[in-house]
Amino acid sequence: MLSRAIVVGISALISISSLSFALADNKPVAIRLGNTTTSGEDQIWLMKARPDLTPGQGKAYTLETFPFRGGDLRLRAFQAGQVDGLVSTGTGAVTAATKGVPLVIVAALSEEDNDHYSSPYVVLNNSPIKTAKDLKGKTIGLNGLREAFELGARMALLDAGLDPDRDVNWVVMPPATMGEALRGGKVAMVSMSQPFFAAEQARGDVRILFTAATAFGFKDEFLLSFNPDFVKRNKEAMRAFVADFIAATQYYSKNMLEARKAISQAKLIEMDPAVYLPMVALKRKEDGKPSRDYLIALQKALLRVGYIDKTIDIDTILDTSMFPQ
Fold first, then answer.
1. pTM for the structure as a whole
2. Whole-angstrom Cα distance, residue 193 to residue 143?
């Protein structure tokens, strides 16, 4: 029979072990997010610049962001398991899902809206290009292939009676170099996101040929997508993250100047504050919820241009269960 001293000692060891496991369980979950260098996701930057707005950060989760030039590079990192989630266009998310990439869309950041602001396709002021039909034989600059900007351009070309695969050339370049490429004659048109468009507007001699909202015919959305297994394993952390994301979005919408000052001071954006602070940008989705109707319309557009050759049930990739009930 074990002596009382041994029993007490074993009990103490069990208690210590249990406490260690409890402490490990309470450790914040690291959320690794692949993000962009554009102004469709300012509220993510705000979460980094002003953690005081996000009570769950540092307790339920920590937020690590990894910027990528384009959606194609973010998706590769996501597939390789280098990030747990990513900022993406609906185009990138739905295309990837139809090709078998496991993901769920958990929230929406912003949307293209001509009544507020929509990302432009830009040419030089003195360019002879007046409509999409005039792009025949020209080179178009994009920040990534098989993404939203290419989709919008392809839809505009099809509507103009052109063949996107034969009548134009495509070239990929970092967003920060697009202005110089356009002015240097290397491309005839570029797709520009903020804050890069604002910088080129400040320099002058550019004009908008058409916008993403016009090309799509509906309001394209900027989304947050995650690995579904990560979401299942870390539900409490994800609920805290989504709640903080909504809080940051609402603060940004109501206090845009102060939010942008914080982002700029934290050096999360490489842009002259004189350009960044007053610039117009994509409309935020204050409730944070992605639109099911939008995703259905988008999937039809993706079929039309040949991005995908089959459809999926949109409800299988839409997960808003992390939202506060």
1. 0.84
2. 9
